[in-house]
Amino acid sequence: MGGESRVFTLAEVSGHNHRKDCWLVIEGKVYDVTKFLEDHPGGDEVLLSATGKDATDDFEDVGHSTSARSMMDEFYVGDIDTSTIPTKVKYTPPKQPHYNQDKTPEFIIRLLQFLAPLVILGLAVGIRFYTKSSA
């Protein structure tokens, strides 16, 4: 390229997101992969879907070979201004009510308070029925 490398914002790079003009951000560098789209072993859709964001994780997840990594140099056009890339938001699950083990006995006691009278009533009816029928 000669001279200083150009620094792009993510907004600038995001505009290059179609088959005739496709740029990617990988490991802080910007690559114009337009000419490589039809030769990419994974197909052009994979590259097109990685535009407009930091595609480093996508690139690393696939496990590209050393030769694939060295090929990238010919598509290098500059660096990304990392301050323009949104920070990754870690997924935090919604707050769940904290499981309190002390509530378990309370639940069992309430259940027993409900079931015990039913059992006693059932026994009383059963005994009365049994004593009536045997008399």
TrEMBL record:
<dbReference type="InterPro" id="IPR050668">
    <property type="entry name" value="Cytochrome_b5"/>
</dbReference>
<dbReference type="GO" id="GO:0016020">
    <property type="term" value="C:membrane"/>
</dbReference>
<keyword id="KW-0479">Metal-binding</keyword>
<keyword id="KW-0472">Membrane</keyword>
<keyword id="KW-0812">Transmembrane</keyword>
<keyword id="KW-1133">Transmembrane helix</keyword>
<dbReference type="InterPro" id="IPR018506">
    <property type="entry name" value="Cyt_B5_heme-BS"/>
</dbReference>
<comment type="similarity">
    <text>Belongs to the cytochrome b5 family.</text>
</comment>
<dbReference type="GO" id="GO:0046872">
    <property type="term" value="F:metal ion binding"/>
</dbReference>
<feature type="transmembrane region" description="Helical">
    <location>
        <begin position="107"/>
        <end position="130"/>
    </location>
</feature>
<keyword id="KW-0408">Iron</keyword>
<feature type="domain" description="Cytochrome b5 heme-binding">
    <location>
        <begin position="5"/>
        <end position="81"/>
    </location>
</feature>
<dbReference type="Pfam" id="PF00173">
    <property type="entry name" value="Cyt-b5"/>
</dbReference>
<protein>
    <recommendedName>
        <fullName>Cytochrome b5 heme-binding domain-containing protein</fullName>
    </recommendedName>
</protein>
<dbReference type="InterPro" id="IPR036400">
    <property type="entry name" value="Cyt_B5-like_heme/steroid_sf"/>
</dbReference>
<dbReference type="InterPro" id="IPR001199">
    <property type="entry name" value="Cyt_B5-like_heme/steroid-bd"/>
</dbReference>
<keyword id="KW-0349">Heme</keyword>
<dbReference type="GO" id="GO:0020037">
    <property type="term" value="F:heme binding"/>
</dbReference>
